[in-house]
């Protein structure tokens, strides 16, 4: 498996005499054949600025590739869980990588391969299946139909500017669509993709919404999207804060919508820290709940999320309440090779899943600068098993929990 690298102009090469390596946490690791799959459709290869790739040279020595080169990583579409990050060293340790989830990539058998596992069916979230012309036409139609609706104007920027697939779905009126509601948050996530402190060193790749929508605006978006039995409309997007901070708007909008139609599913992507707010949203008729978490250990969770006036115990209470009320619950599990597969992390998450009645774990590759993240969180206390074995352990220990990558329509009828 040949090492892949890029020159200063972004041209990609493979080195016939160097073997590629990966990283697990801060350790350089060998990549196994059974960890590699062909580069998936919809994946993007990117250079890692201010880095040099590390590999094994023709003499069998592990070292950085010399020259004006940079490491290369793959950004995977939803449905694929990375098993290793690229093997590299930084040439300037003061520089932070943009907030993406980088996967190790190699050249093998005449093509690109990545260290990844197919965790879910990628079809619906393959960017190649989102026709940009259709999105443009959908934007024009809905903006013309609702010229005063600020949500549609905001989402048009997400769909056209960022090519966000969830907002694009809103204009394509298919699958899972977006309805953001909140400009504020009760957490200060280290890797927040919509808002970063000026001194963070991370440029936020998205712009957060800056207004409070009206109930009428929210209802219009929801009613347009809930047009098939399997359609999903979701509060809580990458372009907003915590949706449950606007629980009053959500509850009122849900009640109006459900008085008009029983079509489709209402979902919320949330940190679930505001337990009272979450109970009100559940009681208003919520169908699906996806809770973002990075760990079931307090010290790790708190280091990343920096929760304001809530704890991980509140998150657990919210999930338990929703599960008891018949909501199809899942977690948006932010995973990182060398961290998520730690012995103590796995034990804690398995216990968390059992206590809360989780139905689905969505494995989501954490978008972060690896060095900054590893400096932030506690050090490993037990054995590190590797991501592939971690997935196998989860399936064995949680036989009633689906291991996937994105929100699904429940297998059973809606409550």
3D structure, described in words:
By secondary structure, the protein is an alpha+beta fold. Helix content is 29%, strand content 25%. It contains eleven helices and 21 strands. The strands form three sheets. Strands 1, 2, 5, 6, 7, 8, 9, 10, 12, 13 and 14 form an eleven-stranded antiparallel sheet that branches. A seven-stranded parallel sheet has the order 15-16-17-18-19-20-21. A three-stranded antiparallel sheet has the order 4-3-11, with no helix packed on it.
State the gist of this model.
With 415 residues, the protein is of the alpha+beta class. It has eleven helices and 21 strands.
Tally of individual helices: 11
What's the rounded overall pLDDT mean? Answer: 93
Structural class by secondary-structure content: alpha+beta
Distance between the termini: 50 Å
What is the radius of gyration computed over CA atoms, rounded to a whole number of angstroms?
A: 21 Å
Give the overall form.
globular
Share of helical residues: 25-40%
Count of DSSP E strands? Answer: 21
Sheet-strand content, in percent, reads 15-25%
Low-confidence stretches: none
Main sheet: strands, sense, barrel = 11 strands, antiparallel
């Amino acid at each position: 498996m040949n090492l892949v690298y890029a020159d200063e102009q972004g041209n990609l090469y493979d080195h016939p005499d160097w073997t590629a390596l990966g990283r697990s946490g801060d350790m350089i690791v060998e990549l196994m054949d059974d960890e590699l799959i062909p580069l998936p459709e919809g994946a993007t290869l990117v250079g890692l600025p201010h880095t040099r790739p590390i590999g094994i040279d023709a003499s069998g020595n592990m070292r950085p590739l010399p020259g004006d080169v940079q490491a290369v990583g793959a950004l995977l579409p939803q449905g694929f869980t990375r098993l290793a990050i690229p093997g590299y060293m930084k040439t300037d340790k003061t520089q932070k990588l943009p907030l993406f989830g980088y996967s190790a990539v190699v050249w093998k058998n005449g093509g690109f391969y990545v260290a990844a596992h197919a965790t879910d069916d990628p079809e619906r979230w393959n960017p190649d299946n989102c026709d940009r012309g259709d999105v443009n036409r959908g934007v024009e139609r809905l903006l013309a139909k609702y010229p005063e609706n600020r949500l549609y104007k905001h989402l048009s920027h997400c769909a056209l500017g960022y090519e966000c697939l969830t907002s694009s779905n809103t204009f394509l009126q298919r699958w899972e669509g977006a309805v953001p509601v909140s400009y504020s948050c009760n957490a200060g996530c280290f890797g927040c993709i919509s808002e970063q402190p000026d001194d963070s060193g991370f440029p936020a790749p998205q712009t957060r919404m800056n207004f409070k929508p009206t109930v009428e605006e929210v209802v219009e978006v929801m009613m347009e999207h809930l047009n098939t039995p399997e359609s999903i409309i979701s509060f809580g997007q990458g372009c907003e804060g915590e949706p449950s901070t606007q629980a009053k708007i959500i509850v009122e909008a849900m009640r109006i919508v459900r008085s008009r139609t029983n079509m489709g599913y209402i979902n919320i992507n949330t940190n679930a820290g505001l337990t009272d707010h979450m109970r009100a949203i559940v009681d208003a008729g919520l169908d699906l709940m996806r809770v973002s978490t990075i760990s079931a250990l307090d010290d790790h969770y708190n280091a990343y999320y920096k929760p304001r006036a809530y704890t991980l115990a509140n998150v657990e209470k919210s999930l338990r309440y929703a599960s008891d009320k018949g909501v199809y619950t899942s977690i948006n599990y932010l995973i990182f090779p060398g961290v998520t597969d730690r012995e103590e992390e796995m034990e804690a998450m398995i216990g968390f899943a059992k206590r809360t009645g989780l139905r689905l774990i969505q494995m989501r590759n954490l978008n972060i600068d690896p060095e900054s993240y590893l400096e932030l969180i506690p050090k490993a206390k037990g054995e590190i098993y590797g991501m592939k074995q971690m997935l196998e352990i989860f399936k064995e220990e949680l036989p009633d929990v689906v291991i996937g990558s994105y929100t699904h329509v429940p297998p059973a009828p809606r409550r």
